[in-house]
Amino acid sequence: MGFLENFEKGLERIVNGAFSKTFKSELQPVEIASAIRAEMDSKASILSRDRILAPNTFSVSLATPDFKRMATLGDSLINELTELTTRHAVKQGFQFGAALAIKLIEDQTLNMGQVTVRSTSQNTKVEWMPTLDVAGKRFLLNKAHTSVGRDASADIQIDDNGLSRKHFEIIWDGKSAAVRDLRSTNGTTVNGKKIDEVAIADSTLIQAGRSDFTFRVIARTISE
Predict the structure, then answer these.
(1) Which domains does the chain have, with CATH numbers?
(2) Taking every annotated instance into account, which residue ranges of this chain make up the domain FHA (predicted)?
């Protein structure tokens, strides 16, 4: 268990786009984590009902005494902060447009106990990509119609004798998705209900044969 595992929710006061708070005692790692969380929450952008894009780069400014003290923790501090920030993003349903990066900066103008967090999003173009997760594997759905079944003729072949040769398909038009049963023997279930065809959103559970599938829509950066 990491040394930040049980940190409590931090203060969430935002001033001109940056989190700033002076603590009465020595600055603690949990307070840095809380500051990053607050900054992320304030800067997340709602792109659609199911998609929220969060900033991926965080610059954490610390007073010289605090910076030197945190530096003694080495990479373990950054690793813990990165893990906790990622967990918070997942819990909130946030997605990153690029890899998460956290950097500590020494700021001689700050008083001891003061922390300021500023965030940015990399200037990259983002596209939303549908995926299907099953048995620890993730499949990109890069076609308008993607069939799933046990036979090699299916776009996604799954080793499951409970599946029909082509059991169901995912339909994607670039913005929205649907799942359609392909006259399978045992039927297709979406969120606990048998379907013929139904619209689906991020995190929808699809059950077919003996397998559980999770439909997701993820952010993917595009090289320009």
Answers:
(1) 1-118 (3.30.2320.60), 124-219 (2.60.200.20)
(2) 146-195
